[in-house]
């Protein structure tokens, strides 16, 4: 039997796990990172498809993502701004296209007034939320019992205003229908980005990209860790107990004995591991109340960024389109043009009920409603389907069902004996983003170092 010993065994070689491993190693502890996939990066994945470099997973960097920006600088990577010159486009409920500039969509004056009012109200509510402890808000239970859709219905009779406000949380972030998560979960999503206004401002939340792809962050971290990272090692068993320490067994026949373990992967994967003894009942119940969202990230590469010739930025929105948002995703220094579009929740469900050919046709038809018929004929077309990824099973991250955040949120990060938990799904600031994964990796590493020295 192949056996190894270390101070800390880490399950998952994404940004959280590799950050934790790096911090622990700097503190003088021995580590071993076990990754189920044949690559590092988790939900970060930069790959070449039909001769085009595509960001299959996460890719954007915003100004408030301090942990990610610090890591990018420390690794010697460069960023470049997302292309945003020219006008954006909006498709309304009647199918009409309007070109616009600024953050507020080009809607009627009454709807615009409602949008501004709702954004201001949500900003004020978000300011009262601690993203690390949203359950401590005085109205947390009440806000967690009502869906975000129902909350919006209480706030306004303007359907287009409701549709657009919901778009920023439901379609663009949690990738679930607005009736499937609570108002408290929506406030956490906004608080994790600093404000609801930040989510509305695409130029802020989707500010920059890393030259060569964001997966370079985990690739370079793993390179520094060297032989302490092992690929194709799906963990099947975690043994822990009162005597202290932990033993981890992989499907590849490796057994690792350690003082501590960090599970640094999506929490929806915990049921795929046999815990001996089982995790406490509260933890097991908690894990039944979180689930991943569902989104298709669509990449369409053309011989040139033709939309720029029309004076368009490549930024497009509509809660009424199959692809509810799209952006110019042209790579740094590339003469070709790339559009990235997103199809989420119920629209994604519907498209996986038809053939791949029909799915592609419908998505490109939707993009053509923003950018014209030329959008229907890309040189390269690719769909990132993280729901089909065995070791992720959804995107972008996990969120609680109605009532789950106030009921179980405080227990999400709580260690179980020597077992600690870290991933973007349980972050406060940077929730659902690489920044949150790095913050969680740092936090858990610091907790283990303090415990190891006590």
Automatic annotation (TrEMBL):
Residues 16-448 form the Amine oxidase domain. It comes from the Bacteria. Gene3D superfamilies: FAD/NAD(P)-binding domain (3.50.50.60). Keywords: Oxidoreductase. Its cofactor is FAD. InterPro entries: Amino_oxidase, FAD/NAD-bd_sf, Flavin_amine_oxidase, Flavin_MAO. Belongs to the flavin monoamine oxidase family. PANTHER family: AMINE OXIDASE, AMINE OXIDASE [FLAVIN-CONTAINING] B. This is Flavin monoamine oxidase family protein.
